[in-house]
């Protein structure tokens, strides 16, 4: 005999309601109407949150909507072991009610969820449960089963939390979380413990756990992060910390970030501290600087010795004074380029600074008549030295014979740079104007040959001269490797 399930549910003493995919109420039994104190006409066709309003950010709204959405997305039964959902009385007041609910998907032949059947049990009044003792036995079993389901989900969350703790504990960098305005330690991983010499910091404020940092400004930084909600990044920050014995203070250097953790109200509630101890890196950089400074000192001494030797060697040679002056100027240009590279630890040099330094070391007060224009680029040391010597020779020639040999001449030094994957193409133009009329030289000296060598040591470039009457034009092309940061 076919069973009329609608009639069966309509007669059930348990509240049942049917919702469509848009969460509109399409059918409910009499028990549901009695429980909610509503008429069928005022419920059918309305959304469940329109018929029974609740604040969208309330726990009641979030739990109910979340359960219904899970049924739609998974096609599986979802249960709410306990939920408070207040019901409006006919007189306009609210009744505080607690419910246990089961949401069952009703699927179309193609497997898609078409409706959701909600079965609710009002667990507010104990005497109602006693009056329905037989039903209560079944409902209690269902509640226990739903509680077990909730417990299983909680266990999953606990497992995920433990996994995150394990990952944080094994992270190579130090990490910690401080909470509240007093910055109390909630979490600190193994690397953080090593940083603070194994001190027990959990549950303590920073001032209690690490009193030596109070006057070093780190608490002030944390206060600012909590106040503004903006992260703070520290680079090679010096911090003085007690060592493992707890007596001596050791100097450490840290790269770190203070990242605010924002609460539901949009305000910072905690700070995530993460970083690395870079003390060895900083000390290595300091040692490198000392070595480079020592190298620079020795090279300058060597250049001074060479200069002295040249003076002693050629002082009695007739007619050697001019050549000695040129040689001395070239040594000074080389020393200036060397000093520029020393400032960057002999790792690289700025193209703009190399050109300006070379011109300034030669032209002196005439530098104002030289216009330098072009995008900056980082040169390798050898390219920087070659360019400095090249520009020095051009400047010297301009002072002797070209645009800087009178009071009106000017020079434009302009270049362009084109990217070529791991290299760049440099095209530099040296253009003189308003100087004496230019005639092509009858011979090429060492200076011209030095310029013609160009910048690149691998012959990937060239230098051309145009001895136009209105002024020398020199075009320098070179293909240079990029300097990696």
What brief labels describe this structure?
5-stranded antiparallel β-sheet; 485 residues; elongated; alpha+beta; 19 strands; Beta-Lactamase; 3 domains; Heat Shock Protein 90; single chain
Characterization of this structure:
- This protein is α+β, with helices and mostly antiparallel strands and 485 residues long.
- The chain has helices spanning 5-11, 30-36, 40-43, 48-51, 59-74, 126-131, 133-170, 190-195, 206-209, 218-228, 279-314, 321-343, 351-363, 381-400, 446-452; strands at 16-20, 25-28, 78-84, 87-88, 94-95, 98-107, 113-122, 174-179, 184-188, 232-242, 249-262, 268-277, 349-350, 370-373, 378-379, 410-420, 423-433, 461-468, 471-481.
- Strand 18 (461-468) and strand 19 form a beta hairpin.
- Helix 11 (279-314) packs antiparallel against helix 12 (321-343), helix 12 (321-343) runs antiparallel to helix 13 and helix 12 packs antiparallel against helix 14.
- Per CATH, the architecture of the largest domain is 2-Layer Sandwich
Approximately how much beta-strand content do the residues carry?
Answer: 25-35%
CATH topology of the largest domain: Heat Shock Protein 90
Largest sheet: 5 strands, antiparallel
Instruction: Give, in spatial order, the strands making up the sheet with the most strands.
Output: 2-1-7-6-3
Q: What gap, in angstroms, lies between the N and C termini? A: 83 Å
The low-pLDDT segments are none
Shape: elongated
Number of strands: 19
* Mean pLDDT across residues: 79
| Radius of gyration, in angstroms, nearest whole number | 41 Å
Tally of separate helices = 15
CATH superfamily of the largest domain: Histidine kinase-like ATPase, C-terminal domain
Q: Which structural class best describes the helix and strand composition?
A: alpha+beta
CATH class of the largest domain: Alpha Beta
Tally the structural domains.
3
What percent of the residues sit in helical stretches (DSSP H or I)? 40-55%
